[in-house]
Amino acid sequence: MSKVKAGGSSKNNHDSPGQRLGVKLFGGQKVKVGQVIVRQVGMTKRPGPGTKLSRNFTIHADRDGIVAYKTKKVKTFTGRSVRRTVVSVE
User: Fold this and answer.
1) pTM to 2 decimals?
2) At 1, is the pLDDT very low, low, confident or very high (cuts 50, 70, 90)?
3) Which of 26, 40, 64 is CA-nearest to residue 51?
4) On the CB side of 3, how many CA atoms lie within 13 Å of its CA?
5) How far apart are CA 58 and CA 36, in angstroms?
6) What is the phi-psi region of residue 6: left when phi exceeds 0, alpha when psi lies from -120 to 50, beta otherwise?
7) Domains of the chain (ranges plus CATH)?
8) pLDDT tens for residues 25-57?
9) Dist CA 54 CA 36 (whole Å)
């Protein structure tokens, strides 16, 4: 007979740090070339003129200027039109 109670494995012990996602520069703020404007997972916001999209969907400034956010109607795969935010540098 065992003298020690069976030790179960703990299930809720792995925790990862936050990814620091979100909008880094808001509309009307100055931006320099290469600065991060938005960090995101997927294309929740779309790149416009003066910006570029990196492989992990981060939107960077392509030129110096001022950040602007606008909404635009975009057609989805099914043909439905939805509003999406477009980030641009003017």
Assistant:
1) 0.78
2) low
3) 64
4) 0
5) 7
6) beta
7) 22-89 (2.40.50.100)
8) 999 999 999 999 999 999 999 999 999 999 999
9) 10
